[in-house]
Design goal:
It is a single chain. By secondary structure, the protein is of the alpha+beta class. It has 4 domains: 1-143, Immunoglobulins (Immunoglobulin-like), CATH 2.60.40.10; 144-303, Rossmann fold; 323-377; 380-602, no CATH class. Helix content is 24%, strand content 35%. It has 11 helices and 29 strands. It has helices spanning 2-17, 156-172, 212-217, 220-231, 280-293, 297-303, 312-316, 323-345, 354-377, 535-545, 551-561, and strands spanning 23-31, 36-42, 52-61, 67-77, 86-96, 100-109, 125-133, 137-143, 152-155, 188-190, 207-211, 235-240, 259-262, 265-271, 381-394, 397-410, 418-420, 425-429, 447-454, 457-462, 470-480, 485-487, 495-498, 504-510, 516-522, 527-529, 531-532, 566-571, 583-595. The strands form 5 sheets. A 9-stranded mixed β-sheet has the order 18-21-16-15-29-28-24-25-27. The radius of gyration is 28 Å and the shape is globular. The two termini are 51 Å apart.
Length: 602
């Protein structure tokens, strides 16, 4: 028993020594005699502008009975001072057996920064955590964020010698879009050895900076997760003081040893002095300029789905609200409940009948109003969805990277709960203000969302889908996949094989020589022959078939389709990320991109 106590003590001490690069929410002793305690730590010192915040919970239970706790989280974002715009609630129940230490990484959903502030607000992002069970505690983490500057993370070895100078330089730039109160931070910090192995932990960040030594110290699972984030569009900066170091030597397979676009995002190997000092002016200027080249995620959420830039709204069409019918009904109700009720139904000497006629008239009017609402709006809703699947088949990475955008308009909903049957990041989107929009780009009432995770599923409730409204969501997931398009012979003749489980309506390929090819109506699991096509045919396809997806994704798709041996295709029967079953999705379109594989490549 004494040995076990010492082991638990040293494990706890090791965890405590690594907290300097993280944010310790609290450490609560819940049993004094054995010093049993629970520790809750934010792995990153800066919150993301959307997605998830990784939180590590360590329970050191030295009691002879199990310990159970509940952690309740409330995340908010705001662009206007008076009230929050978005709120996301979640909770987790954790247990630890007797005489054990158990550490768990939680992916806590955070409120997305979907609105652009008209003034600089210093801490628009916050995460409040409450602990219940054998002890209680509370903590709140706040962070700055903006669509005008990347949301970044920096390893502890870079953060310590550089953070103060970088923050000071950033605050000199009044046009940075950050707070004028001096609260702007260049990046949050993290401890490489404590990085989580779930891609969702990184999805809300734009760039991550670390040294090559930090990279090699990270757990293998964390490196794989960070490379998956990079595939989705994140920019990874690896800084090295050794001239002979290259990305392949760091275990990253690339074509260019200094620059590699892995899917949607680049991996940059950059030089740094041995003292690990960065030039503040150079880096702040470079990051500010990078916004025009790689749009920050918050900027995409704030601009790409409003201001008439999202063509999916055209596919939904417009819906007219018939005020006249409701006004006529109210006028008729007023006449009935007033003069007719008073002088016909309950004439002089029969006023006691008012206690009967008035409720009956009101009930009848209410029923007519309900019938009118059902007749005009119906039950359930209709919507359109478009997803982009990027297929990757490289060493250690056989996945489908899914980005799905959806827009719906609802009538009367009988319930708002739904389940997503796979690990997923879901973000509400702010639309242009209208009589149907609940989450709009202008100041309005707070929207509240709930997300609960259980055994690989995501249970959602709250304001994701509301009656008689328009709403939109962005969903992202990564699926293990062996689906691919491959050449049928080693000579790479214009005959390909599809092992996809769904059909392709249009298919375009740019080969290694830059020649464009096309095919149409391709059945699942069948070989097909390509025909030459012109640049005009290809551009016409891009302008029409991918028009409905958001602007930033459209530009990324175009760039990928210009790479050698890469294809772009359209499917109308590929599986989507399913959300509310109350919505009848009238249009489901999938854009597929990827590299054509060599024969029998796995």
């Amino acid at each position: 028993m004494k040995f076990l106590s010492r082991l638990l003590f040293f494990l706890s001490l090791f965890c405590w020594l690594n907290l300097h690069a993280q944010e310790l929410f609290f450490r609560q002793v819940y049993e004094n005699h054995t010093a049993s305690h629970i520790e809750v730590t934010g792995l990153f010192s800066k919150l993301p502008t959307s997605g998830y915040a990784p939180v590590r919970v360590t329970i050191s239970n030295r009691m002879i009975v199990p310990a159970t706790f509940t952690l309740s989280f409330r995340s908010t974002s705001k662009a206007f001072y008076r009230n929050d715009d978005v709120q996301v609630k979640s909770s987790f129940t954790l247990s630890c057996p007797a005489s054990q230490v158990r550490s768990t990484d939680l992916m806590v959903p955070v409120a997305a920064l979907v609105k652009k502030s008209s003034y600089a607000y210093d801490a628009p992002l916050s995460l409040q955590v409450n602990l219940y069970g054998m002890t209680e505690a509370t903590h709140q983490q706040s962070s700055d964020g903006s669509g005008d500057f990347p949301q970044m993370l920096m390893s502890e070895s870079l953060y310590t010698p550089n953070a103060s100078a970088l923050d000071g330089e950033l605050n000199k730039h009044s046009g940075s879009g950050r707070s004028h109160l001096g609260a702007a931070t260049f990046a949050g910090k993290f401890e490489p050895k404590q990085m989580p192995s779930d891609w969702r932990a990184y999805v809300g960040y734009d760039r991550i900076l670390l040294t090559s030594d930090d990279w090699q110290q990270m757990p293998q699972g964390a490196r794989a997760a960070m490379l998956q984030w990079n595939r989705q569009g994140g920019c990874l900066h690896l800084l090295s003081s050794r001239a002979d170091e290259s990305l392949p030597s760091l275990g990253i397979d690339v074509d260019d040893p200094k620059l590699s676009y892995r899917g949607l995002g680049p991996v940059l190997l950059e030089p740094i002095n041995s003292d690990l000092k960065l030039n503040p002016t150079e880096w702040v200027t470079k990051m500010k300029k990078s916004v025009s080249e790689r749009t920050p995620r918050a900027e995409m959420l704030q601009n790409d789905y409003s201001k008439g830039t999202w063509e999916m709204t055209s596919a939904m069409g417009r819906k007219t609200f018939y005020f006249a019918m409701f006004i006529i009904l109210l006028v008729i109700f007023g006449i009935l409940v007033g003069p007719i009720n008073l002088f016909v139904f309950a004439k002089s000497g029969q006023r006691h009948k008012l206690f009967i006629t008035t409720p009956l008239i009101s009930l009848g009017a209410s029923l007519l109003m309900i019938i009118l609402i059902f007749a005009q709006d119906g039950v359930g809703g209709a919507g359109v969805r478009m997803q982009w699947i990027h297929l990757v088949h490289e060493k250690g990475d056989h996945h489908a990277y899914v980005h799905q955008e959806q827009l719906s308009r609802t009538g009367v909903l009988m319930g708002s709960r739904f389940v997503i049957e796979e690990p997923c990041a879901i973000t509400p989107l702010a639309l242009d203000a209208s009589q149907w929009t609940r989450l709009s780009t202008v100041e309005g009432p707070m929207q509240s969302f709930e997300l609960e995770q259980s055994e690989g599923t995501l249970r959602a409730a709250g304001d994701w889908f509301q009656s008689r409204s328009e709403q939109a969501q962005l969903l992202q997931t990564i699926r293990p996949s062996r689906s691919r398009i491959e050449y049928t012979d080693a000579a790479k003749s214009p005959k390909l094989m599809s092992n996809l489980d769904h059909s392709l309506r249009h298919f375009f390929l740019r080969d290694a020589q830059g020649q464009l090819w096309q095919a149409h109506d391709i059945a699942p699991g069948k070989a097909f022959t390509l025909q030459p096509c012109t640049d005009a045919d290809w551009r016409k396809f891009l302008q029409s078939d991918i028009a409905a997806i958001s602007h930033a994704q459209k530009e990324r798709i175009k760039k990928i389709s210009e790479r050698a041996d890469h294809f772009i295709s359209i499917s109308e029967d590929a599986p989507m990320i399913e959300t509310s079953t109350s919505i009848d999705w009238k249009e489901n379109k999938t854009i597929l991109t990827g590299k054509v594989q060599a024969t029998s490549s796995l």
